[in-house]
Design goal:
The chain is an alpha+beta fold. It has two domains: about 1-185, Roll (Elastase, domain 1), CATH 3.10.170.10; about 190-355, Neutral Protease, domain 2 (Orthogonal Bundle), CATH 1.10.390.10. It has helices spanning about 20-25, 35-45, 100-120, 170-185, 190-215, 270-275, 280-295, 300-310, 325-340, 345-355, and strands at about 1-5, 55-60, 75-80, 90, 135, 145-150, 155, 225, 240, 250, 255. The strands form four sheets. Strands 4-3-5-7-6 form a five-stranded mixed beta sheet, with helices on one face. A hairpin with a 4-residue loop joins strand 6 (about 145-150) and strand 7 (about 155). Residues about 1-10, about 50-60 and about 60-70 have low confidence and may be disordered.
Amino acid sequence: MTSVNLPPTAMAPGIVPPFLLTRIARATGERLSVAPEAAAQTLRHDRPMRSARISLSIDENRTIVAEVSDAPNRTIGDARNTETLPGRTARSEGEDPVADATVNEAYDGLGATFDLYSQVYGRNSIDGKGLPLDATVHYGSDYDNAFWNGERMVFGDGDGEVFGRFTASVSVIGHELTHGVTQYTAALNYANQAGALNESISDVFGALVEQHSAQQTASAASWLIGEGLFTPSVRGVALRSMKAPGTAYDDPVLGTDPQPATMAGYVTTREDNGGVHINSGIPNRAFYLLATTLGGRAWERAGQIWYDTLLGKGGKLPAAATFARFARATVSAAGARYGGSSPEADAVRSAWTEVGVTIDGGTTR
């Protein structure tokens, strides 16, 4: 028997950051009746996952069951508002849509994510080896999150006051599944700048999944992560804006979006694993600047550079990579693919410079 330890990225805490759930849990007033307890319950549920590590036992003589093929293999389970996984199978690969829109949205979102990685980057599923794409919907009661648990996607229905169903956003599905891609490639720590990079990479490819599915150009895209998750009563458009970090919401319950757009606003905190959902706005903005500078379809050149970086083509990333280390790797990856003096490499340098990340002189912090 061989024991394989997967990195902490295998259990990312979900698309909704804990600091946002904490604000909702503490909210008072007549506007909310369900959401505060739903947020508190979600926080209690998520807390063990933030430090979890998965250990798998693999029999070296086990016969490979799933044949590798460049086509998705999706199974959607229905937890029926329990916390039991995987739940009753509601739809399997190749089956027609069902009456439950949540099941169909999960199925389609998994497919859209598979298509981006397969059609654009030649990656066969999350692990590059045809990993089946499994998901469970209707998880928990009023559960305010969606997460990748190292093996499957899990979606809550939201509380109905702040959040609606979490299958409604393709960028969320792409984001969470990309935590799996990072798990199998760069394996970045989930803390501090490495954790913010982990979150940002998921935002980047979550946005690209949505754009690829809609065949949008960089200039036409919204660059919003989690658009459509909030109910109409919330003063906000999404969880995060890659185009303009810090502007996604400004709401009496949620507060003001705390993401900085440049290193000048970098937040030093012990909360949120060292601000992984907050400081991710800085590399998010850098990618947006690169994509819009290059123009056209962001998944082609800008996305290819980020994907090459994940694969180590700009140099192997340390698990505790800083913004500056990642930035240097993206420049190297751009140079390896397009040439060191190419417009692509120059655009990468300019994007990082604009957000205040020093490439040649080490980290700015």
